[in-house]
Here is the input.
Amino acid sequence: MDHSHMGHGDMDMGDGDSPMCSMNMLFTWDTQNLCIIFRSWRVTSTFTLVLSILGVMALTAGYEAIREASRQYEERHATALESTPRSTAQAEEKKGKVIKAAFYAVQVFYSFFIM
Here is the structure.
């Protein structure tokens, strides 16, 4: 089966005017057109590499902050449910599940973003 007519040959991430963007899945000290997450986040020198490392560290710290906030919310929510009258507990439990789902969605987004 010949698929040469489908035009899949030019799969680089360059935009025509700039050199090809290298996206490496392994840690590297390369400062030649290394792209992180987006084509616009390009490492072109040692200085931009250091800034990028700091940026990734900030993203990771944000992820950990979201995880900690989620854990704290779960503890507070469990404590609040224990002291809630049975008549309103079901509504509070549903509200808690929605908020926990939102925390989970943010964590998954963050984790894929960092990966």
User: Anything to note?
Assistant: The longest strand covers residues 38-43. Strands lie at 34-36, 38-43. The mean pLDDT is 82.
